[in-house]
Write a structure and sequence with these properties.
Methane Monooxygenase Hydroxylase, Chain G, domain 1; Put_Phosphate_transp_reg; UPF0111_domain
C-alpha cells in the first residue's frame, strides 16, 4: 500500500460497511419471501421497502460526505461508483419483491430459490469485505468468489428462462415471471459491479 503523508477521511469505511449490512438484511427478506404465502408477502414487501429506503439514506450520506471532504481514502470516482453499485443491489432486490406482490404471483418457478441463494451468499461476502477496505487486505478471494457466483447466477437465469418458455405457463404469466427473474439477475450483476470496483480500488492502492 502506498505511504501517505496526508490524513484521510475514514468515515467512508463505516458507511460502506453499513450499506453492505443493509444489503444482507434485504437478502434475508428475499429468502423469507420464498417460504411465505401470498397473505404474508405484502408485509415482507413493506419491510423490504423500508430497507431500501435505509439504503438510499446510506448512499446519500456517502455522497454528502464525498462532497464535503477535501481528502478521501481513495479516488472520488471510485467512491461514487461503489456507493452507487451498492445502492443498485438494494433497488433490484426491492423491485423483485414488489413485483411478486403487485403481480399477485401464486407460485414462483423452480430455480428462483437458487437465484436468491446466490444473492444471499454474495451479500454475506460483500458485507465481510467492506471493512477490509480500511486495510486493503483479504479482498482478492472476495472478488474472485463474487465473480464466480455471478457466473453461476447467469446459468441459473438461463435455465429459468428455458423453463418459463417450455409451454407450461400462459403468455401473461411468462411476462410476469420473466420480469421477476430478470430483476434478480440484475441484482447478481450489481454484486459483480461492486466486486469489480473493489478490485479496481485495491489495484490503485497497492
Amino acid at each position: 500500500m502506498r505511504f501517505r503523508l496526508t490524513p484521510r477521511e475514514t468515515s467512508f469505511y463505516d458507511m460502506f460497511a453499513a450499506s453492505a449490512d443493509n444489503i444482507v438484511t434485504g437478502s434475508k427478506l428475499l429468502m423469507e419471501l420464498l417460504g411465505a404465502d401470498s397473505s404474508a408477502r405484502a408485509e415482507i414487501s413493506e419491510r423490504m421497502r423500508a430497507a431500501e429506503h435505509a439504503g438510499d439514506d446510506a448512499t446519500h450520506a456517502i455522497f454528502h460526505q464525498l462532497n464535503s471532504s477535501f481528502i478521501t481514502p481513495f479516488d472520488r470516482e471510485d467512491i461514487y461508483r461503489l456507493a452507487s453499485s451498492l445502492d443498485d443491489i438494494m433497488d433490484f432486490m426491492e423491485e423483485a419483491v414488489d413485483l411478486v406482490v403487485l403481480y399477485q404471483v401464486d407460485e414462483l418457478p423452480k430455480g428462483v430459490e437458487q437465484q436468491i441463494e446466490v444473492l444471499a451468499r454474495a451479500a454475506e461476502l460483500t458485507a465481510e469485505a467492506m471493512p477490509n477496505l480500511r486495510t486493503m487486505t483479504n479482498l482478492t478471494e472476495y472478488w474472485i468468489e463474487v465473480n464466480r457466483l455471478e457466473n453461476q447466477a447467469d446459468q441459473i437465469h438461463r435455465k429459468l428462462l428455458a423453463h418459463l418458455f417450455n409451454g407450461k405457463y400462459d403468455a401473461i404469466e411468462v411476462l410476469k415471471l420473466k420480469q421477476i427473474v430478470d430483476v434478480l439477475e440484475e441484482a447478481a450483476d450489481a454484486f459483480e459491479h461492486v466486486a469489480n470496483t473493489v478490485e479496481t480500488i485495491a489495484v490503485k492502492e497497492s
